[in-house]
Amino acid sequence: MGARGFGGAQKTRVRGGPPRRPRPAPTVRGLGLVMSHTWRVHVHGWLLLLPAAVLLVTFTHYPVAATIYTSLFSTPKPGRPSLWVGLDNYQAMVEDPVFWQALGNNFWFALGTIPLSVALALLMAVWVNGRIAGRGLLRLAFFTPTVLPMIAVANIWLFFYTPGYGLLEQFTGLFGLPSHNWLGSRGTALGCLVVVTVWKEAGFFMIFYLAALQSLSPHLGEAASLMGAGGWYFFRRVTFPLLMPTTLFVLVNAVINSFRLVDHIVVMTKGGPDNTTALLLYYIYDVGFKFWDQAYAAALTLVLLVILAAVALGQFLLLDRRVHYQ
């Protein structure tokens, strides 16, 4: 007997299941409900992003746009409004010897602070991550310089470097060395700032390395010890490659910090002697707030932003192949 029912209509059957019922056609009301739900989801997402977007535009994008705009005009004076000057401020920057000296100082300052602070932070993190007595006190001692205010740190080290009776002078006097003006000499002033910066930043970077070390699986060390791998070999082949994401983050922050130092210079050297310690951001502060040349300061700021962006991008491109994410 055929599979036809009353009226000869053919019933479609799925093997091993009940007859398949045709889907009802979507109605206008159903489509409206779906579109309304999708619209509500998108609006809800944008409302969640709105506070962060407002802060980002207000404190990042708008200042950058305003800086670019200001750098193309002259600084307004009493009785003389701001005028369009185009690239004149950038041409003056190229011909400014103090700008090139500050840029060179910043290069040597970054070359001294970045490797030392990162290496010291990694060394301290590995040390306090081990099973040693007084581990908590060591962590506190290493991190304490980070929480001190910048001005307080500068005044502390200003006392250390004071010629005649400073702490460093008393130490060198034990060996019969003559008194030396550490912050007033062209040969030692910038090096003194490097020491202060490394002392303050190393503990901050140590926290990130310590957190990364504590997130590593202990089974890696156990497996390496069973295979007879030494401590240095395990650190070089296993631990340090797994710390590359943290190292990349620390390097980017160290570069930014090396170009934004102002507080220590204001308190300790004021850019002297003979602009030996005048870094780029301090020179921008001088131009903008002492000489009141806002247009030229805006041009200098834009160059600083371009340098930082180029260096950060270069770090990501060069170190991306060595970064291993778990």
Mean pLDDT: 85
Instruction: Indicate the overall shape.
Output: flat
What CATH calls the topology of the largest domain is: MetI-like fold
Unreliable segments of 5+ consecutive residues: 1-14
Distance between the termini: 65 Å
Rg, Cα atoms, Å? 31 Å
**Residue fraction in strands:** under 5%
- As for the number of domains, it is 2
CATH-assigned homologous superfamily of the largest domain: MetI-like
Report on the biggest sheet. Answer: none
Identify the CATH class of the largest domain. Answer: Mainly Alpha
Residue share in helices? 55-70%
Number of DSSP strands?
A: 0
The CATH architecture of the largest domain would be Orthogonal Bundle
> What sequence of helices (H) and strands (E) makes up the elements?
HHHHHHHHHHHHH
Describe the structure.
The protein is an all-alpha fold and 326 residues long. It folds into two domains: 43 residues; 234 residues, MetI-like (MetI-like fold), CATH 1.10.3720. It contains 13 helices and no strands. α3 runs parallel beside α7, α4 crosses α7 and α10 runs antiparallel to α13. The longest helix is centred in the first third of the chain and has 44 residues. The radius of gyration is 31 Å and the shape is flat. The N and C termini lie far apart (65 Å). The N terminus is likely disordered.
